[in-house]
Amino acid sequence: MSDILTPNKHIKLSVSDKRDEQIICKISKALSTNERVRILRSIIDKSKSVKDIAKELKLPPSSVARHVEVLADAQLIIVNYQPGIKGHAKYCSQTILSYTVNLDSTETDRENNNSFVIEMPIGQFSHCHIKAPCGMNGKDGRLGEDDNPRSFFRPERNQAEQLWFDRGYISYNFPSPEEKGNFSGIEFSFEICSETVYYNNNWPSDITVYINDVEVLTFTSPGDFGGRRGKLTPEYWPIMSTQFGLLKKIAVNTEGVFLDNKMVSKKLTFDDLKLFDGTSIKLTIGIKDDAVHKGGINIFGKNFGDYPQAIIMKID
Fold it and tell me: CA 212, 217, 220: angle at the middle one, nearest 5?
């Protein structure tokens, strides 16, 4: 499967999945005022500055700035900074085209007794082959030496809450269930974005995911995100550096491959992964040598970025 997937702009959520609860609440709040709906309408297909939006909608710039923060928190827009006459100007761009919220029980609950769930700290990788620029951060400070791939093999890597590299791949080995059961689907979720100097919200990177050394899909991260502090990003980390990523969900079941709950291929199914042939299940995240966009990778843990989780594997 070599086709590169464009960023998913049509998101499907479910009230029966507790992982979606927070974002559903944020979206509902973001769409609860006429002013924020008008702002969304204003930037359809065109990025605009806060000043321009305020002038167009005849609203105070301070009010527009507050509304923009709420919309960005719900991931309905992305905010970046561009040089202006007086410092930097805030520009707002549309990110998501549609959200669908299921109100039934068709989604499998994460705490379902039939699920096998493991959360892996991002520093507990089993192997990596990376190229600088690269580095790691912990909750309380930097780990090892920046731009030295050897640092990734030091014991303190287990404390990593953010790691980044320009080229290569990183692998994690998850324990497989002791009982095979009637499992028919596997899902991995993690927070990730591109990597460049400081940050650049428009910096695409083609990221490939493998499960048990089987190539599952390639998706394009749209950028290396900054411009505001990540909700969990420690204060010691410079505000002009990478701050947060996107929460990506990659799933394979009997029907095919899904990215963020949207089917992207029927060529690969659950049985093709041979998950129970060994004692572990291998997840690999990297950039292929022939990738069109070689834009690096940032991976976030529970105490960095926007989402309080590391890498979660769920088998149903």
Answer: 135
